[in-house]
Amino acid sequence: MTDTPAQPTAGDVADWWANGICRMEPGVVELRGIPVQELIGHRGLVSTIWLMVRGGSPTADEAALLEAAMVASVDHGPQAPSIAIARMTVTCGVGMNNAMASGVNALGDSHGGAGQQCVELLSEIVARESAGAELSDATAEVVAEYRARDPYLPGFGHRFHPIDPRRNPLLSLVDAAVSAGTIEGRHAAAARAVEALLNQGRSKPVPMNIDGATAVIYAELGFAPELARGLFVLSRSVGILAHAWEESNQGRRNKGPMPTSILPTYR
């Protein structure tokens, strides 16, 4: 005789959705144990992002550094696939949420993933240095291993900018944070070691780009590589929203990737 499975109880269902992020019941909304009414008007968005994904609260200096990284990544023009897709989508008779989701869904390994990949790269260098290797040796080893898999090294070089205009301001803030003791600076040193290695014997430099500079900040602040990508997506969502909204007010219908006067080559 087969035993009848026990029927789930209300407690079983409640436990199914157990979480440590948000407590909600009638009259109560708590985020990581803090009543939302204590956050409203007292905590900024970036600090709240930290609270939600990490728990705890950043210092003012940590929050400022994270905000700088996120501000730097909000947009890179309509030639970026995620922005172009959002602008086209919003002309197709769908809502702003559809346009934003379509743009965000284009952010993958090739477009939007370099920050996560660079955090992984820098973290591996720092790990080997912690195990006793010299920084220069750890850098050479890790870069060689990465390049054996892919000639592209995430976080360095840019197809548009000889020097990414976002690089120097972010690294200046990183240096100031290291001097103030806000961050340790080991990932920043690793990134500069990679940059120096890449530029050996080159007449045309391959400088760190926005993905590298923000990867330094995310890694120094202790964010996991996957969260580095998520934070980039949050940042770029601002640009996606702005472009989708602008496009929605221009009166176009069914905007395609090229003006209608230009037809694709048929092969």
Automatic annotation (TrEMBL):
One Pfam family, short name: Citrate_synt
Organismal lineage: Bacteria, Bacillati, Actinomycetota, Actinomycetes, Pseudonocardiales
Molecular function terms, GO-annotated: citryl-CoA lyase activity
Alphabetized UniProt keyword annotations: Lyase, Transferase
InterPro entries: Citrate_synth-like_lrg_a-sub (IPR016142), Citrate_synth-like_sm_a-sub (IPR016143), Citrate_synthase (IPR002020), Citrate_synthase_sf (IPR036969)
Protein name: citrate synthase (unknown stereospecificity)
Pathway as given in its UniProt record: Carbohydrate metabolism; tricarboxylic acid cycle
NCBIfam families (UniProt xref): PRK06224.1-1 (NF004864)
Superkingdom of the source species: Bacteria
Species, as recorded: Amycolatopsis rhabdoformis
EC assignment: 2.3.3.16
Homology family: Belongs to the citrate synthase family.
